[in-house]
Amino acid sequence: MAIRQELGATGVLELVIDAPPVNAVGIADLAELARVVEGVAERPDVSVVLLRGEGRGFIGGGDVKEVQRLEGFEGILGQVTGSTDLTVGIHRCAVPVVAAVHRYCIGLGVLVAGVCDVVVTDEGCTFVLAEVDNGATGGAVQAMGLMPDKRLRQAMFTCEPVLGRELATYGTVVAVPDEAAVLTEARRLAEVMASKPATVLRAAKQAVNASAQRDIEELYRAETALTLELNMRGDARAARETFVSGERRGYLSPRD
């Protein structure tokens, strides 16, 4: 399993994505992550969730090779269902969710970061909404948590990277100078949150969600209906083949 859990003495639960080489998240991993964040409601020992990626970057998107490998529409349906369950689960999680995002954050990774309560990233981190290059349409409602409308449209329609330092100007992320400091700052913020009265912290999460009034589940399902239509027509498979073949390597940092 590419997901592991590490619970600290203060109640900070670290969920670590470790799926080399780029942390592309498969259907089973999406289900496991969703199960854990939803289950926090019944875990008084958890005060804060910290989500991070091991290795080269945060999340390199959904596992497109798995989607292509599975018969019929099983792969795309699994990814759509899994990404819906995970992002809705994070948004509704009973406790705050902090994301430690380093080096790159692609496709599904942007959706996940967009629904976390706090995002810590390095200034040079690349955030790429790669859905159009993969024959997909969803993710706008989650990505709205990171960037304003017109910038989101540009990022989605071009699939060009948005840097962490730019997102910091919108106030949607905490940007640190380099990736080595990302996890340190994310852990510091998580520990500060975990020091607050547990019942008050959980109530505050509910209050903020109610005020934000962003129905991620309904809106994302409407978006992904177009993705499923593209797959039924056969238009999406060719786009994914191009992606898998390596022609989209420009998403990653030159160091990768």
UniProtKB/TrEMBL annotation:
<protein>
    <submittedName>
        <fullName>Enoyl-CoA hydratase family protein</fullName>
    </submittedName>
</protein>
<dbReference type="InterPro" id="IPR001753">
    <property type="entry name" value="Enoyl-CoA_hydra/iso"/>
</dbReference>
<dbReference type="InterPro" id="IPR029045">
    <property type="entry name" value="ClpP/crotonase-like_dom_sf"/>
</dbReference>
<dbReference type="Pfam" id="PF00378">
    <property type="entry name" value="ECH_1"/>
</dbReference>
